[in-house]
Amino acid sequence: MNNSLTNTGRLLAAGLRALLVLTLVTGVVYPLAVTGVAQGLFPGRANGSETVADGRVVGSSLIGQSYDLPLKKGRRAPEADLKWFQGRPADGLGTNSVNTRYRLLVSGATNLSADSAELIQQVEDARKAVVKDNSVPGYTVAPSDVPADAVTSSGSGLDPDISPQYARIQVHRVAAENGLPVPEVAWLVEKHTEGRTLGFMGEPRVNVLELNIALSKLVTEGS
Predict the structure, then answer these.
(1) pTM for the whole structure
(2) Domain count for the chain
């Protein structure tokens, strides 16, 4: 009887020691080591790829944002603020009644099939809006000029990038809305166009947040 209790006590003590050691290693030492390496070598990525403008964080280069006018009374959705470059549609985003400030946390795709009448209508409506919004005096956008990323949302609905083609067809409208020369705005797009990763992965892209920050600086310098 005493031997049984003694063995049980030893096993319990050994188990507790193992628990404490593993908790210390996996719950304290390892996270601290990983965090230290990440902060030392990749601080920007470790902190969420924050984008800073005028000394404050304005977003993440990994998450798309909306550039809309304040919601008008009687309208279900806000209108796009046409002085800014616009990103991809975000039709798949859900609603968040608990935390309305960060609605983009509720991400997702539309989950509509390619032959869905609803999806087809969304694409057609988006194409018409892109043509209408970006056609200004002296420059007309044809429906055939509108790229796929201008009328479809990404799988997450949070794609921060657009294609260079979509950025270029917005140049004349952005220039007109901000009273800027078209060549200067076009130069901004070219400057912020990134090539394929490692030269062969993905497609050329333009980060909308970074482009709009550069646009804001250009407007401020010109005023």
Answers:
(1) 0.78
(2) 2
